[in-house]
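Objective 1b. Sequence-to-structure analysis of Glucosamine-6-phosphate deaminase.
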Amino acid sequence: MDKGMAVLKDGTIAGSVLKMKDSLRNILAFTDATLADVVQMGAINPALQCGVDRKGSLEAGKDADFIVLNEKNELVLTVCRARLPIKKKRWIELKIVSVTDNQEMSKKAAGIIRELVLRKPDAVLGLATGGTPEGTYQQLVKDHQENGTSYRSIRTVNLDEYAGIDPKDPNSYYAYMKQHFFDHVDLPDGQYFLPNGLDTSKEACMRYDALIDSLGGVDLQLLGIGRNGHIGFNEPGSSLTLGTHVVKLTESTRHANARYFGSIEDVPTEAVTMGIGTILKSRKILLIASGEEKADALGKLVLANRADSRFPASALTQHKNVIIIADEAALSQTKVSKD
């Protein structure tokens, strides 16, 4: 790369004005591309992708020092004189399934989870709590009782738990999962895991991530979305690369959860949550949303073209396998129509 070119497996990449390494460095510095994106860019031969010779020349009028295309040969990024990109669009399109109401959302989500359980009986499921997934768990329990779908070899890991709450507390997410799912299927004790709300040390958080890795990683992560765009308990401003960690809950999140505690004063101020870095390691992500109160957040997610820590759910635009199932009310601020 010292003379404006790099020899890779797919041939030679030629640079016209800047050295290749400088182009990549500037893309990293001046655009929203991540380090992983930049490494991938460096493995693409722009000339060959454009169907021109390897000297780096482009068609007349194509004034560019460096271009990047995706696997469909669609233009993703053009850098001129290594300054800000003059054209860029999201690499990955989110798959959105529009349904009529919460019940249909729950059935479709449960169907996706059931299909995975049948196809891979020892799968690792990432589970969520709150009001939105309750219907999904009801459908899974119903299917287990009526069709015998077995969870005997399944392992599960939950997104989060309130800090300072004993698992035996009825407001704990451990109690929630027992009430809505664990106690109604044949999932053995010792095969479901949640963060420990009584041990919020950095070491405990690291052990939870290590546990997930030891299970082989999450095959499918179920998510909801908060009104402020939080996923798990990753609030606005959270780093998009963190593993499991302790987070201070925003007032809006505490207000949203006050219905479970009786008053906002009783809602914990902190929680232990999988970080977005952990969530994005999942092989597949299933986000469900229902109701007008989620419309603003879902509208922002659908329009997002980059990951922004001010809106944590935007990190999902960087994942290659995301399915969003949402009802018409939740999608009311988008142009997505019912399938």
